[in-house]
Structure formats: structure tokens, C-alpha cells
DNA sequence: GGTGAGTCTCGTGGGGCTAG
DNA sequence: CTAGCCCCACGAGACTCACC
């Protein structure tokens, strides 16, 4: 056991476990420190055998590739020791080992980081994000994460197996005690938009699932999680390119009712922030974009560049 | 010990040049 | 015209030193 671990290091390990795998820039953004300080801490943790680093091709651009950080078995043991309720989880629930699509996972991380930034920019708001990948996420008896949704088939409808969003979150206005529920789907263009074979993973089927989920009011189960009243939810699509955004917009427009579906691109998230009017509602690209916070709270607030 | 500034090193992509 | 090579710019990481 490593005894000289400081509070900072414990927080670093916990955040790496929570996200499973992060780029060093993401660690910097989460902890709001300078790049240099975070790199130093991570180097130290790597020397202690608690984290593992590899290089990434994420967002391929000029220059030296960024490091990817995840926990080692020793690091996972450390987090388990700090959180006895996680004792029964195997090591691969804490590490990046089973992450299937790395770029998708890293873009989801960026969404979470930008989402967290909202409550710093607008202190009246609080945000809580549930990730299906997090080891801290309460698991059901069958080992499925809490945010995994079931859709039992009704007579006369096509059977579905349910679905797992890339994230579920709520934004609450603390003074008004008003909560809005959101489901997140991050799209890297790996799934077909509407396959002729009706692939259960294509975007069309996802939208059908959410429409059924909405009609049945199954989202109300989150009222218990967050102790609030919910009048519906919004489904957010984060597309990795403009072309992909356009094709999903066309599909969404063809599939009413779709007013609860909002779409944007990764570029807009990075350049303007999630609180800005960057969201296309119901796939209508000709209409002016809106903010998911509503017109009164809409604000352009990109993440500041961390100090070197 | 922790942090920031300055500087160097390293890996990668882009663009220009040249031989075939 | 194109493949292959080389050089340069860029960006991330590492190192040193000074300061608190």
C-alpha cells in the first residue's frame, strides 16, 4: 500500500476511475489546474505504478500526440480501498481495458467536462451526470448500470431489448427548484443512420426507442434518483462532424414527434460551450439554434485554455 | 513540497521538391 | 502525374530553476 498519497492524488485517481480513460488535457480541465502541474502529478502516479499512460490518436492533429491515462490494477485497488462499496467490482470496471470505441468515449468525456463548466459559469444551476461506464455508478442486480433502460415489448409492437444512453444528466435551477432531464447520445458516425436491415443500434431505432420511452413515461424513474418532478426529457445528439449532424437532422425531421430531440456538433461545443445557442431543435437546421438552458440563460462560455 | 516560467525535446502532419 | 523524401511548423511532454 502506498501511504504517501496526498488528497490531490486521491482525487486524481478517483476522477480517472470515474471516467475510466482520459487524455491529460481532460484531466487538466477536470481539476482546473495548469497542464504542467497535472502532467507532473500523473508522471508521479505512473512511476508509482498507479496509472498507465499511452499515446492517443484522438482528434488527430499536428504535433506530439496526447497521453491517454487510465488506472492500473494497483490504482484500481487503491480506489477500491478508499471506497469499500466498490469492493466486489472487478478491476476492468475501473480501467480503460473494456472501452470499445475510444474516440467515442473521449468525446463523451469532453461533453461531461463542458457540462460541468455550466455550473461554474452560471452558479444558480447545478448539474449531475450519470455515466453507464462509471464504476461509482450503482449497478442493478444483473450487473447492468443504473442508466441502462429496458423497453418491454407491448402486444402488437416490435420487440426491443432496451438501450443504454451515453449519459443521463439533470440540470437544476437551485432557486426555482426546477429540474430538466437529459439523455445524451454521442455520435461518431460509426452507426448507420437508418439501415435497411433495421439494425437495433442504428440512429433510427434509437429515436424510436426514445419515443416509446417518452410515451410510456419511463423516464419518471429518475424522479426518485434526483428527488424532483419531471415533465419529460430532452434527447441530445452530439455529432462529431457537420455532415453527420445534417444527416441526423434530416432523419429527425422525418420522424415526428421530435421536438424533444436537440442536436449539435463537437466543434460548436468546443468553440462556444454547451450553454450557448448551439442546439438545433427537432432537426430544423433552418431555424435559429437555441440553448438547452432556454433563452434567458443562454450564454457563450467556452472552456478557458488551461495555463501551461 | 507545490507551483509557474522558460526552454528544450520529441512525435506528427503538411507542404514543397525531385526523380521516375 | 505521382510516389517518396525532406524540411518545417505545431503542439504536447519533460526538464531546470526560482519562488513561496
Under CATH at level 1, the class of the largest domain stands as Alpha Beta
How much beta, percentage-wise?
15-25%
User: For the CA atoms, what is the radius of gyration?
Assistant: 20 Å
How many beta strands in the DSSP annotation?
A: 9
On the 0 to 100 scale, the average pLDDT is 86
How many structural domains are formed by the residues?
2
| Oligomeric form | single chain
Q: H/E series, N to C?
A: HEHHEEHHEEEHHEHEHE
The global form is globular
Overall SS class: alpha+beta
Helix content: 25-40%
Low-confidence stretches: none
Distance between the termini: 32 Å
By DSSP (H or I, 4+ residues per run), the number of helices equals 9
Largest sheet: 6 strands, mixed
Instruction: Give me the CATH architecture of the largest domain, please.
Output: 3-Layer(aba) Sandwich
CATH-derived topology of the largest domain: Trna Endonuclease, Chain: A, domain 1
Amino acid at each position: 500500500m502506498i501511504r504517501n498519497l496526498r488528497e490531490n492524488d486521491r482525487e486524481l485517481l478517483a476522477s480517472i476511475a470515474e471516467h475510466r480513460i482520459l487524455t491529460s488535457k481532460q484531466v487538466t480541465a477536470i481539476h482546473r489546474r495548469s497542464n504542467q502541474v497535472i502532467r507532473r502529478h500523473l508522471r508521479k502516479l505512473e512511476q508509482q505504478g498507479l496509472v498507465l499512460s499511452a499515446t492517443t490518436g484522438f482528434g488527430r492533429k499536428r504535433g506530439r500526440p496526447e497521453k491517454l491515462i487510465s488506472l492500473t490494477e494497483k490504482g484500481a485497488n487503491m480506489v477500491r480501498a478508499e471506497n469499500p462499496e466498490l469492493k466486489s467490482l472487478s478491476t476492468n470496471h475501473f480501467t480503460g481495458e473494456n472501452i470499445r470505441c475510444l474516440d467515442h468515449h473521449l468525446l463523451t468525456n469532453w461533453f461531461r467536462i463542458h457540462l460541468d463548466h455550466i455550473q461554474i459559469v452560471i452558479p444558480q444551476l447545478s448539474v449531475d451526470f450519470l455515466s453507464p461506464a462509471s464504476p461509482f455508478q450503482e449497478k442493478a442486480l444483473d450487473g447492468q448500470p443504473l442508466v441502462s433502460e429496458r423497453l418491454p415489448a407491448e402486444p402488437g409492437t416490435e420487440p426491443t431489448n432496451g438501450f443504454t444512453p451515453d449519459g443521463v444528466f439533470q440540470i437544476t435551477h437551485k432557486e426555482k427548484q426546477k429540474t430538466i432531464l437529459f439523455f445524451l447520445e454521442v455520435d461518431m458516425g460509426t452507426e448507420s443512420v437508418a439501415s435497411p436491415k433495421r439494425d437495433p443500434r442504428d440512429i433510427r431505432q434509437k429515436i424510436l426507442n426514445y419515443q416509446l420511452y417518452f410515451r410510456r413515461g419511463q423516464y419518471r424513474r429518475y424522479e426518485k434518483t434526483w428527488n424532483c418532478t419531471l415533465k419529460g426529457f430532452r434527447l441530445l445528439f452530439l455529432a462529431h462532424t457537420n455532415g453527420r449532424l445534417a444527416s441526423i437532422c434530416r432523419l429527425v425531421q422525418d420522424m415526428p414527434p421530435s421536438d424533444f430531440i436537440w442536436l449539435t456538433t463537437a466543434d460548436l461545443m468546443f468553440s462556444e460551450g454547451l450553454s450557448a445557442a448551439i442546439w438545433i431543435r427537432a432537426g430544423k437546421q433552418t431555424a435559429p439554434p437555441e440553448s438547452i438552458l432556454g433563452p434567458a440563460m443562454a450564454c457563450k462560455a467556452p472552456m478557458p485554455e488551461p495555463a501551461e
